[in-house]
Amino acid sequence: MAELGPDRSRGEVQGWLAEERVTLQRGAETRTRLKPSFKLRAGDRLTLVLPPPPPPPGPLRPADLPLDVLFVDDALVALDKPPGLTVHPGAGNRDQTLVNILLHHYGETLSSEGGDERPGIVHRLDKDTSGVILVARTDPAHRHLSRQFHDRTTRKLYLALVKGDPPDATEVTAPLGRHPKDRKKQAVVSDGRAAQTAFTVRERWPGYALVEARPRTGRTHQIRVHLKSIGCPIVADATYGGGERLTRRDLGLEPDAPLLERHALHAHRLEFEHPSSRERTTVEAPLPADIQAAVEALRERFPRT
To answer: Where are the domains of the chain?
Structure first.
């Protein structure tokens, strides 16, 4: 008998019922047309015929799209990842990811430590987070960089435009884990993994602030959840309470125009030990055009006197 495990969704089970993959044996009665609301009785027996597994994915195809290269040598490439770009292939997207673009530009000169689906990928950024990301070009470089991320010897600096009135400087230490009601989200939970982020306000306006975030740990959605936990969600972060977008009209400015249509989080600076020279190396990505436009609009709306 197959072990289904705890990760089957309600929608998946309802799909099995609709496709009549579940058979109910109740005494001498056999039924396959079952509603999701049906109730089991003592002695009932259920049989499930699982759909066949999907065929294995084919090889990844290179994508001829540009890369914004901040630094490159024989060991690694440092890139400024644009918002909206997924780092590695997954369900529904196997052709338009950073990995596909890397295959076009660097082909076989990428490390193999991450496997066939993630050549060169040492760490990742969320799809809508922009900024510095490192890519390894050799297996020794990959292992050296991975060890630094694991041991927390890299230094990361993010910039985030947030709603609210954060303190000038604060440190949030709050454990993170899967949201109890939404598996796609993270949340502060008592039994979560330890997480720590230091925040410093770089510039502020009524109801908004540009914040520097220095994560001490590397949990999923860490900066976004920690900012939400102090009542200062990232602007245009629809997942964690920052709204779906930001326009000039939202700030009381004319003419109206969109400013931000993705969460305003940018990986601005990354410091690490170079895997070949062993020298401390710092790579920076400038504030992207959309977040810069939002900052300029706030300066226009609330000029310094």
So the answer is: 12-48, 55-151, 153-305
pLDDT tens figures, 124-169: 999 999 999 999 999 999 999 999 999 999 999 999 999 999 999 9
Contact yes or no for 69/82 (Cβ under 8 A)? no
- CA nearest neighbour of 304 among 219, 203, 212, 220: 203
Point out the catalytic residue in the list 7, 73, 126, 139. Answer: 126
Q: How remote is the C-alpha of 95 from its chain's centroid? A: 18
Q: How confident is the model at residue 5 (pLDDT cuts 50, 70, 90)?
A: low
Nearest-5° angle of CA 83, CA 85, CA 86?
130
Question: What CATH number should be reported for the domain whose range is 153-305?
Answer: 3.30.2350.10
Residues of 212-242 as b/e, b for ≥16 C-beta within 10 angstroms? Answer: bbbbbeebebbbbbbbbbbebbbbbbebbeb
In CATH terms, the superfamily for domain 55-151 is Pseudouridine synthase (3.30.2350.10)
Q: How high does pLDDT run on average in the chain?
A: 93
Is 126 assigned a catalytic role?
yes
- The whole model's pTM is what? 0.83
Fold match between domain 55-151 and domain 153-305? yes
